[in-house]
């Protein structure tokens, strides 16, 4: 099927994360990409220099423009910046009928710069998380949502994933990249099953935008598959290739992006 996907996120003028990475991912995986901008972010491969949030009313207006005209098959939700924007997005999507909502719980940039206010974390947990099909937290993000310390092993990672399910989302993809194992373990948890994924760590510093890229890959692929297991497998396989080819790009002086179009260039 031809998939129309929507990303709701902040920008990255260097092109490796945010809206720009999401649209590249949609295109690479043969989905038509649309977007709603929540914040203008001055950032590059070295970090975030400034954030200019969009007025919640204008975020809502963008969302209405897209949903009132286009058939949207899936949504990837990224950086939401503040509580009022979270509210606007939650309200706009509530009656949309879009079958697949992927929430990337963006709280920190790869450089460590904060991208979500503390008040917005609570609003996201209470208003948006119960609406979505899947969330994709890394270990610090999962800990922030649960108001606890980050998991230090897979046993605790699983316990926290189960706790996130209890908050109302349909599925959780816990990302274990912050663990120190030789392979990076991820866990897909639903109310019916728990599946483990591993992949060798790719020896590259160029990992800017991997979280944005994985979640947008899930949004692009889920309408074509019958389950999250197959969707996650295909998304992770594609992302592994994008990481393996990241060093063939020459972008920036810091943490560079993955290669979204490695299959084409």
Beta-strand percentage range: 15-25%
Q: Helical proportion?
A: 25-40%
| Pattern of helices and strands | EHEEHEHEHEHHEEEHH
**Mean pLDDT over the full residue set:** 93
Estimated radius of gyration: 17 Å
Head-to-tail CA distance between termini: 25 Å
Number of strands: 9
The major β-sheet equals: 6 strands, mixed
DSSP helix count? 8
Shape: globular
The low-confidence runs, each spanning 5 or more residues with pLDDT under 50, are none
Strand order of the largest sheet: 3-2-1-4-5-6
What structural class is derived from the secondary structure elements?
Answer: alpha/beta
Write structural notes for this entry.
The two termini are about 25 Å apart. The mean pLDDT is about 95. The protein is globular, with a radius of gyration of 17 Å. The strands form 2 sheets. A 6-stranded mixed β-sheet has the order 3-2-1-4-5-6. It has a 3-stranded antiparallel β-sheet with strand order 7-8-9, sandwiched between helices. It is built from 8 helices and 9 strands. It has helices at about 20-30, 55-65, 85-95, 120-130, 140-145, 155-165, 210-220, 230-245; strands at about 5-10, 30-45, 45-55, 75, 100-105, 135, 170-175, 185-190, 195-200.
Précis, in short:
Helices cover 36% and strands 22% of the residues.
List its salient traits:
three-stranded antiparallel beta sheet, 8 helices, 22% strand, alpha/beta, 265 residues, six-stranded mixed beta sheet
Compile the SSE list and pairings.
Elements: E1 3-10, H1 18-28, E2 31-44, E3 47-53, H2 56-67, E4 74-77, H3 83-94, E5 100-103, H4 118-128, E6 134-135, H5 139-146, H6 154-165, E7 171-175, E8 183-190, E9 194-200, H7 210-221, H8 228-244
Parallel strand pairs: 1-2, 1-4, 4-5, 5-6
Antiparallel strand pairs: 2-3, 7-8, 8-9
């Amino acid at each position: 099927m031809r998939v129309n996907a929507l990303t709701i996120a902040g920008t990255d003028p260097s092109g490796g994360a945010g809206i720009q990475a999401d649209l590249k991912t949609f295109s690479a995986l043969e989905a038509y990409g649309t977007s709603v901008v929540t914040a203008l972010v001055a950032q590059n491969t070295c970090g975030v220099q400034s954030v200019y949030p969009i007025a919640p009313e204008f975020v809502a207006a963008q969302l209405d423009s897209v949903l009132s005209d286009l058939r949207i098959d899936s949504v990837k939700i990224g950086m939401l910046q503040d509580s009022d924007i979270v509210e606007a997005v939650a309200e706009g999507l509530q009656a949309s009928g879009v079958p697949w909502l992927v929430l990337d719980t963006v709280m920190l940039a790869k450089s460590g710069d904060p991208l979500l206010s503390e008040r917005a974390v609570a609003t996201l947990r209470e208003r948006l998380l119960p609406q979505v099909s899947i969330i994709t937290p890394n270990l610090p993000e999962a800990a922030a949502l649960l108001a606890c310390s980050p998991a230090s092993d897979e046993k605790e990672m699983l316990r926290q994933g189960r706790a996130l399910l209890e908050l109302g989302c349909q599925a959780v993809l816990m990302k274990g990249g912050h663990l120190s194992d030789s392979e990076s373990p991820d866990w897909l948890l639903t109310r019916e099953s728990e599946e483990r994924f591993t992949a060798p760590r790719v020896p590259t510093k160029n990992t800017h935008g991997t979280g944005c890229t994985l979640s947008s890959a899930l949004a692009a692929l889920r309408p074509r598959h019958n389950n999250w297991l197959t969707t996650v497998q295909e998304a992770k396989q594609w992302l592994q290739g994008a990481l393996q080819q990241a060093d063939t790009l020459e972008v920036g002086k810091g943490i560079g992006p993955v290669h979204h179009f490695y299959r084409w260039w």
